[in-house]
Amino acid sequence: MTPPILIVEDDPAILELLEEELQDAGYATLGVGSAEDAIATLSHESVELIISDVRLPGISGMQLLEQLRHDGSSVGFIVITAFGTIEQAVEALKIGADDFLTKPLDLENVRDAVYRVLENHRLAARLESAGGARPHFHGIVGESESMQSLFHDAARLAKSSAPILILGESGTGKELLARAIHAESPRHDAPFIAVNCASIPMELMESEFFGHVKGAFTGANEARQGLFHTANGGSLFLDEIGEMPPSLQAKLLRALQERTVRAVGAEKEEKVDVRIIAATHRDLEKEIEGDNFRSDLFYRLETFSLRIPPLREREGDIERLIAALIDKHAGQQGKSIEQVEPLALQALLNYPYPGNVRELENAIMRAVTLAEDGILCHDDLPERLRGHAREQSSALGSEVVPAGQGANWPSLEDVEKRYIQKVLEATGGNKRRTADILGIARKTLYRRLEDQDDAS
Predict the structure, then answer these.
(1) Which of its termini does the chain have fewer beta carbons within 10 Å around, N or C?
(2) In this structure, which long-range contacts are made by residues 200-209, counting pairs with CB atoms below 8 Å and at least 24 apart in sequence?
(3) What is the DSSP string of 83-96?
(4) The pLDDT value given to residue 265
(5) pLDDT tens digits for 130-146?
(6) How far is CA 190 from the centre of its chain?
(7) Contact, 308 vs 174, CB < 8 A?
(8) What's the pTM?
(9) How far apart are the C-alpha atoms of 269 and 81, rounded to whole Å?
(10) How far is CA 334 from the centre of its chain?
(11) DSSP secondary structure letter of residue 378
(12) CA separation (Å) from 286 to 283, 292, 295, 433?
């Protein structure tokens, strides 16, 4: 059961008006006439929000707020007063009020303020909960079943020196997982060398990986060690291994099997102790069918493979990722993000993220950079996230009904009638609440209901 809203007001008429208005809006309320009564009520009753007049007999509303905040209470608090000044409003917000309303009260503003404050506190609790328990594997956040299984398998494989193949879509964090495996392994004090195979010119690949001796080719004016030697004793991460040419794949396979490498132009092979962690977003089995990847190398790597699930398959992780990434980028930028606008959070939660965690992180980095006054706003997000809901609505609205298939569709009038009845049922017949949900004035609702009665 949702805790009630506590209203502290010494004017019985205003107290009754506020209770009636909020109860009509679907909230449970408790009314008291003084701050002392409020403190007594709070000693044995949990409340979701407090609305308090400033001028009260005995302890004032501001003193009540100050005492609650001093005692560590973070309950939502709305201050109301008939003698509001800018200075008083600033003081109330500094003490910890969530909103400041002046009399005579606009009841619509009261309902909006109550909804806004409750929603902000719920979202803050949601983010705090997500950020409080943040299970991770060497910095990789993930509490979903699929990520917990991945962390478990990665930790077990890290103890061996066998090569590992990491599979996953772009942006899922393959290099982060490779670094985590290295950090978890007995090799963690030795070098971790990461190289993107797609970024090395094909003609330089062999020299880059295995090194060369002086005079091995034009321009080889001195001997140079390759990446295998640089990573000796540690781990060599080969990102986008699907881009490696077949000729070099054969040399890599030999290095894996024999644990030896031969520098370009050298006569002898040299022993190396390197753990290979490879990654790709390609379907290597299809690459084998197209003669672009060696099957023997694939089976050598695939024996211990790990698949990072895309973000859309990580149920429950996105909230934790949002909290972790806001903390990360706020910390890096020396900012404090105290609040995320409900609309911004909804946009972050609902976007499909084809670019996975990398796309989410870029969106949050931008939003944190643009955020002001500790509030991450909807307008701070990239346009593609803000426009996603609009695009969905447009797509639904542009669906074309094939000719001859619309005969059984209900009329707009029928749909409206059914929808109004559904909302009425959901609100227990509360017409004020129904009108609010429908976004129409109460008199409009009454007129629609009368029209429906006349038509039936």
Answers:
(1) N
(2) 202/245, 205/244, 205/245, 205/248, 206/247, 206/248, 206/251, 206/264, 207/264, 209/248, 209/251, 209/252, 209/261
(3) S--HHHHHHHHHHT
(4) 92
(5) 554 446 889 899 888 89
(6) 34
(7) yes
(8) 0.60
(9) 85
(10) 20
(11) G
(12) 6, 9, 10, 58
